[in-house]
From TrEMBL:
Protein name (record): GDT1 family protein
Keyword Transmembrane helix: yes
Transmembrane segments: 6-26, 38-59, 65-83, 124-149, 155-176, 188-205, 217-237
Keywords: Membrane, Transmembrane, Transmembrane helix
Keyword hit for rRNA-binding: no
Length: 260
């Protein structure tokens, strides 16, 4: 796997998580109190830094074969979950992920919550909403960066890609102070789901002792093959009756929940 492929895979996956975290923070700050939301943001980042500092060396210490088997299995489960939802959305059997709607939902819930001051935090609801959003989405970013980076023995490059994605989304979010509804998030999730599934299959098989023909070049066949299969599933499900009970995707309000 080349450095550029590693960077792109981590960057795209992390952009999706960063957009979702930004939506939560914006809702907390807009509806409640920006100072409390920002304190929650930095508290979440500090918590993530501690977790990453503890997990980073532990992940790197695992033997390569065991690491690839373990990480491959996790990525496969993670990727298949994303890909399943992406196929259902693309085929019309599940509502598209709508960041603008999620923002409105979070905003309405935040406006209804009663104000509560705790210590230096003027609005505890805004703090906890922002904190949970950063930690939950940030853990997924950290997982992606650590697993991809460890498998390729290039954690610095994976971390750089993750940081670039987060900084880009943060910069745009600060500039517009609105959810990034124009980001083609559903298409990105479809692509990322394909890539995570492919890497999960590739690394899991290698960790189990299998040898791919052409080594890393096998990914050039594996990724398009999974992509074609996913598109075939989209075409197949489009010919089936749509799920009339599908509702727009919205995060669990007041809990900072996430949805891929």
């Amino acid at each position: 796997m080349s450095g550029s492929a590693l960077f792109i895979a981590v960057f795209l996956a992390c952009i999706v998580e960063a957009v979702e975290a930004l939506t939560i923070i914006l809702a907390a700050g807009t509806a409640r109190d920006w100072r409390s939301a920002i304190i929650g943001l930095f508290a979440g980042l500090l918590t993530l830094a501690v977790i990453i500092a503890a997990l980073g060396p532990a992940v790197s210490a695992i033997p390569l074969g065991g690491l690839r088997l373990f990480v491959g299995g996790l990525l496969l489960v993670f990727g298949l979950q994303w890909l399943r939802k992406a196929i259902l959305r693309a085929s019309g059997n599940k509502a598209l992920h709508d960041e603008a709607l999620i923002f409105k939902t979070e905003l309405a819930a935040a406006q209804q919550a009663l104000p509560e001051r705790r210590g230096l935090v003027a609005d505890w609801y805004a703090f906890t909403l922002s904190f949970k959003g950063v930690v939950l989405e940030g853990l997924e970013v950290a997982f992606i960066a650590l697993t991809f980076g460890s498998n390729q023995h290039n954690i610095p490059l994976a971390a750089t890609a993750a940081a670039a994605a987060v900084l880009l989304v943060a910069a745009v979010g600060v500039a517009v102070r609105a959810p990034l509804a124009r980001v083609p998030e559903n298409s990105m999730k479809f692509i990322v789901g394909i890539m995570l599934t492919a890497f999960g299959m590739f690394w899991g098989a290698e960790g189990a002792g299998a040898h791919w023909p052409g080594s890393d070049a096998a990914l050039l066949v594996l990724i398009p093959a999974i992509g074609l299969y996913a598109l075939a599933m989209v075409a197949l499900f489009r010919h089936k009756p749509a799920n009339t009970g599908a509702v727009p995707v919205a995060m669990a309000t007041s809990h900072g929940g996430t949805h891929s």
